[in-house]
Specification:
The complex is a heterodimer of chains A (about 110) and B (about 140).
Chain A lengths: L1 E7 L2 E10 L1 H17 L2 E12 L1 H15 L4 E5 L3 H9 L8 E2 L2 H9 L4
Parallel strand pairs in A: 2-3, 3-4, 4-5
Antiparallel strand pairs in A: 1-2
Helix pairs in contact in A: 1-2
Chain B lengths: L5 E7 L2 H18 L3 H21 L6 E9 L2 E8 L26 H9 L1 E7 L4 E7 L5
Antiparallel strand pairs in B: 1-2, 2-3, 3-5, 4-5
Classes of the chains: A alpha/beta (about 110), B alpha+beta (about 140).
């Protein structure tokens, strides 16, 4: 699992590449938690994620909860159809919004949480 | 890899080996010409069950063996592990989160297995958990 972060003021774009399985989740856990504490919003570029397990979803939800407490948001950019299916089956696509471009992501994070 | 309709392999219940198991299932599915979506669902099921072995198995690291069989365009999967006895088909269903505030950290894995797998059967033979499940053909 590779993780790259580009920070832009209060927002960070985090690009993930590889398998978000139990080993991949260990790689992303601390960076996500750190960014969720430091930033207002996170755009997670999921286009390079080929697999996701619930242990990784936990870390995404945890980061989203941390941001939500400060009215921040976490959005998922361009997950593959298979990964989107896992998120849908987890009942999380309403809680972790999926967007298909960075501009759509910026618009989503500028919406106040409902 | 052979052209046999069945393949088995044993792994340790560590994150590194769970990743290796995932890569192996992907390879077997591709070799057999199983649709990617079907194999992906099998990978999710095995990842969730193996993670359960890793997180709740006693004493760690437990081992788990995976057997894959082709059934039509679907897959039969058997997972045998030496972790703590756990009857997954009988475990209570988790309620899906309705808000971030109420979302629990955990509990999704069993729901994912149930949503993807059919014909789940479980028994504990005194030493090992033996879980069988079927992944029907799910399109490309």
């Amino acid at each position: 699992m590779q993780i790259e972060t580009v920070e832009n003021g209060a927002t960070a774009c985090v690009s993930l590449k590889g398998r978000l399985d139990i080993a991949g989740a260990e790689v992303v856990a601390l960076p996500l938690a750190t960014l969720a504490d430091a930033k207002q919003s996170l755009i997670i570029d999921m286009s390079g994620v080929s697999f996701i397990a619930s242990v990784a979803i936990r870390h995404l939800v945890s980061a989203a909860k941390t941001l939500s407490r400060r009215n921040g948001r976490l959005v998922l950019l361009n997950p593959t159809a298979l990964v989107t299916g896992v998120l849908q089956n987890s009942g999380l696509t309403d809680l972790l919004p999926v967007v298909h471009s960075e501009s759509e992501g910026m618009a989503a994070i500028n919406q106040r949480p409902t | 890899m052979t052209d046999a309709d069945g393949q088995s392999r044993t792994f340790r219940g560590t994150p590194k080996d769970i990743s290796a198991a995932d890569a192996w299932i992907e390879e077997v599915g591709r070799h057999w010409g199983i649709a990617e979506r079907t194999t992906f669902r099998a990978r999710v099921c095995v990842a969730e069950i193996a993670a359960n072995v890793f997180e709740h198995g006693s004493p760690p690291p437990a081992e788990f063996a995976i057997t894959l069989h082709r059934r039509g365009d679907g897959l039969d999967v058997e997972i045998i592990d030496s972790g703590r006895p756990f009857d997954l088909p009988a475990a209570p269903e988790q309620e899906l989160p309705r808000s971030l505030e109420s979302a629990r950290i955990g509990g999704l894995g069993l729901h994912l297995v149930r949503s993807y797998a059919e014909d789940m059967t479980y028994r504990h033979d005194g030493i090992y958990n033996r879980l069988r499940l079927h992944l029907r053909a799910a399109g490309p």
